[in-house]
Amino acid sequence: MRSEWRHKNAALFGAALWLSGVVAPARAASILDQPDLDSPAINETVLSRMTTSLSRHLKAGSNAPTLVASSPRALDLVSSSIPALMTLAQRDVVAARFQVGIGATVEVYGRIPACVLALGRPGWSLGMASARSIDVGARQGWTVETINILSKVEPLLASSRIEYRGGARALDRVQNGEDDIAFVIVYDDTLDPVTRAFLKDGSLSPIPLFGASHVLEASKLGLRYQSGQITVPVAHSWWRKTRFETICTTLGVAANPAADARIVETAVASLTSGPLDEAMASFEKLWEKVQPEYDAAIEKLSSAFSDLADTPELKDIATNLGFGAPQKKPGLVRAE
Asked: Which of 120, 190, 234, 251 has its CA 20 to 30 A from that of 86?
């Protein structure tokens, strides 16, 4: 009953946006910038950057939909009857909602890794009795939804006291011993600056909570997870990193099936081009501008060195060093 009320509310909110012109068919993509006050403060920065990148790629398209800031609440808008909305969404959460009939009108495309990182104090031993409390992130974030799903395959998650702070507050409480574990979702193997700082100075360490057995148990329940790795910094080292095994889902573009297929195609294509591709594209564009000047400079430099190489002094030095043919000296005996 509550989910039905929430779904109707979302549809009404979407209709109001449409009528007010916020979501009216536009000539450029835009972001529905209504931040959730309960949303986490750290790993959402990665999602925000991805959303901004999507918006930039879609600006060239006509009738582009509005990109809703990524959050589970946004799925209610995307699954409503208005196809002018898109969002970034975790595939595990969409699948879980689909099982109960909430997300049946949402399609997800793209497979950006979204992996669970459990953080605890260095030297803290994991055990059923030792995890008094765990922080699963803000109530309206992706982390809490994922941990709720994984509690079906990990009893520790169901037996501990649950906190909903998320962000730097959660990490600080774990560091101080007020909570035992804080969970963060790492997207595209990119740690947010706050989490990285806690790991680099040794305040927190990754906890090996999830493994292949959890993936197997999840598959038996129809939950789509896979084993994965996260790159984490080594404590007290400014450059060393290591790989940490965990459980992962994927992040993709969630769209209404009635959305413009060309726009969805553009969004998915932009997700599949990683940072390296974008960097190479930027370099190629820059190279096109500077190549003529570079070629002219190289030609001038080559010509200058060529003239210098012909001077007798340099030729003598080269000969003494064993380079080039020795210069033929005039004979001391005059030919008769």
From this structure: 190
202's tokens: 């040794």
pTM: 0.69
Q: Which residue has the higher pLDDT, 170 or 311?
A: 170
Strand partners, 255: 86, 107
Give the model confidence (pLDDT) of 213-255 as tens digits.
999 999 998 888 999 999 999 988 888 999 999 999 999 999 8
Smallest CA-to-CA distance from 89 within 71, 73, 101, 116 is with 71
Q: What is the DSSP letter of 331?
A: P
3-state DSSP call for residue 28?
coil
DSSP string, 244-284: EEEEEEEEEEEE-TTS-HHHHHHHHHHHHS-HHHHHHHHHH
Contact 147, 118 (CB under 8 A): no
DSSP codes joined into one string, 183-204: EEEEETTB--HHHHHHHHTTS-
**Residues 133 and 161: beta-carbon distance below 8 Å:** yes
CA nearest 164: which of 179, 194, 181, 144? 144
Kindly report the length of the chain.
336
Residue 76: closest CA among 12, 1, 32, 16 = 12
> How far is the CA of 312 from the CAs of 90, 300, 307, 331, 332, in angstroms?
73, 21, 11, 19, 20
Contact status, residue 196 vs residue 233, Cβ threshold 8 Å:
yes
User: Is 95 in contact with 107 (CB distance < 8 Å)?
Assistant: no
* Contact present, 209 and 127 (Cβ < 8 Å): no
> Is the Cβ–Cβ distance between 223 and 153 less than 8 Å?
yes
